[in-house]
Amino acid sequence: MYSSELIKGTLKTIILKLLSDNDKMYGYEITHKVKELTGGKIQLTEGALYPTLHALEAQGILSTDVVNVGNRIRKYYSVTPSGKKVATEKVNEFSEFLDTMIFLLDLQPKVG
Amino acid sequence: MYSSELIKGTLKTIILKLLSDNDKMYGYEITHKVKELTGGKIQLTEGALYPTLHALEAQGILSTDVVNVGNRIRKYYSVTPSGKKVATEKVNEFSEFLDTMIFLLDLQPKVG
DNA sequence: AATAATACATAATTTTCTTAGGTATATAAA
DNA sequence: TTTATATACCTAAGAAAATTATGTATTATT
User: Fold this and answer.
1) Which nucleotide is nearest to A9 (CA to C1')?
2) Is the CB of A71 under 7 A from strand C?
């Protein structure tokens, strides 16, 4: 688990990347997917996640589809057509930022 | 210039890396060095820098040496012996975080 | 029956940064 | 010579983003 300081500012980028790749996901699913993919090193908190999802929806970047699963609701989020562009830009900007930080901190990243 | 959101949480790491490599630097020098090294993509603001330097000093991670240059003062910061360990840990943690983000966002970093 | 997991949400507080200002000296340009 | 720019420190009010702590409710497991 990384110090929360490090993860600051990455939430929107992570959400938009996952939703770009997965067509539709719901909040609870996002937190678990991120935890799984990072081996528990990044754990999104609901207090940060839900307000961010709501904000992205209000900005027209995400759209929602509320589904009933038994007696429980599940709110699926998808990237809107106009949101796709924003998502790509966010990820690209983060990628450039990483390159800058790798240079600045003189790091040797593992290449996948 | 990256969106400020992206840079959030990286200030301490940047400061500690620069001071680890450069023995001693003063605040104004740090902002200019970072701007120079990143081609203007990262510009530290004084309102963020100085309080952080003061906090790191209060924590015993940095020590200061005030020098008179003409009639002006210049406050040099250095990493203390015990601070060296903190600095290394910070940079290492950031390095691991980068690897995690590269995997999570499916990025291909430039290798230096 | 009690606990954990699923699934949503908000509100108070804290952390961190931005914006905007303040002080003062030295240098370059108009 | 006055004005602007650069050097060099600093703080305080406010905004932004996250944490922590709750709250509601259903479903599955022990």
Assistant:
1) D17
2) no
Residues in chain B: 112
Query: Could you tell me which of A62, A57, A54 has the C-alpha nearest to residue A83?
Result: A62
Question: Does some domain include residue A111?
Answer: no
- Give the CATH number of the domain where residue A100 resides: 1.10.10.10
Q: Which domain holds residue A38?
A: 4-104
Q: Per the domain annotation, does B85 fall within a domain?
A: yes
Our count of domains for chain B comes to: 1
The answer as to whether B43 is a domain residue is yes
Query: What parts of chain A have a pLDDT lower than 70?
Result: 109-112
Cβ of B104 within 8 Å of Cβ of A17? The answer is yes
Strand C neighbours among A 24-63, CB < 7 A: 26-29, 32, 46-47, 50-51, 53-54
Residue B112 lies in a domain: no
pLDDT above 70 covers what percent of chain B?
A: 96
The per-residue b/e assignment along A90-109, b for 16 or more CB within 10 angstroms, e otherwise, is: bbeebbebbbbbbebbebeb
DSSP element (H, E) containing B17: helix B11-22
| ipTM score for this prediction | 0.92
Q: CB-based contacts of A87: which residues, under 8 Å, 6+ apart? A: A16, A17, A19, A20, A61, A79
Q: Is A37 exposed, middle or buried (0-12, 13-18, 19+ CB in 10 A)?
A: middle
